[in-house]
Amino acid sequence: MKQELIRLLCEKSFQYRDEPVFKLVSGRRSRFYVNCKPTTLSPRGMYLAGHLVFEAIGDLHVVGVGGMTFGADPVAVATAFVSELKKKPFKAFSIRKSQKDHGVVKWIEGDLIPGDPVVIIDDVATTGGSTIKAIERARAEGLKVLKAVVLVDRQEGGVENIREHVPDVAAIVTREELTVQYKLKIED
User: Fold this and answer.
1) CA nearest 76: which of 99, 97, 53?
2) Residues contacting residue 174 through CB under 8 Å, at least 6 positions apart
3) pTM for the full model?
4) What is the DSSP string of 18-65?
5) Mean pLDDT of the 101-125 span
6) The domain spanning residue 133 has which CATH number?
7) Domain limits at 135?
8) Which of 69, 89, 149, 155 has the fewest beta carbons under 10 Å from its own?
């Protein structure tokens, strides 16, 4: 499944240029760009991401899986769906970028209560900033963060930065794996 996900990411989500033409959220320029949404919102990509993330966390006792909207949402939903298929169900949740200011004021949408053990998901980690923000907001809502999982690690220090906030961090795919596959694709 992982190799198929790598191929799909290269087809739909990964771009590479010899010059650093892609502007990142941090403002830096990069030769690599990864937008996982075309993959994670496709039926096959959702299937693969959900299964692979479930495998990465299936041995944990968790109540929920989620992260910062919108990047984490399709991965969290796919993983929760797979958890039901595997008869080890847990819930998906979404963390807002800005706090809800009406009704019940909260950061998180989902059926969770304080004390629930959760896994924070992200689609791409560069510096780890959005994942760290999701961890902090989950904890502020009283959730117990057991692990963080990123679909794609750009290998620019993000996973290491996340590890300072939650020791158990996993990446499903690395930039190096995408680059190798991308170069193979170009050579064909």
Assistant:
1) 53
2) 152, 153, 155
3) 0.93
4) SS--EEPTTS-EESEEE--HHHHTSHHHHHHHHHHHHHHHTTS--SEE
5) 88
6) 3.40.50.2020
7) 42-173
8) 89
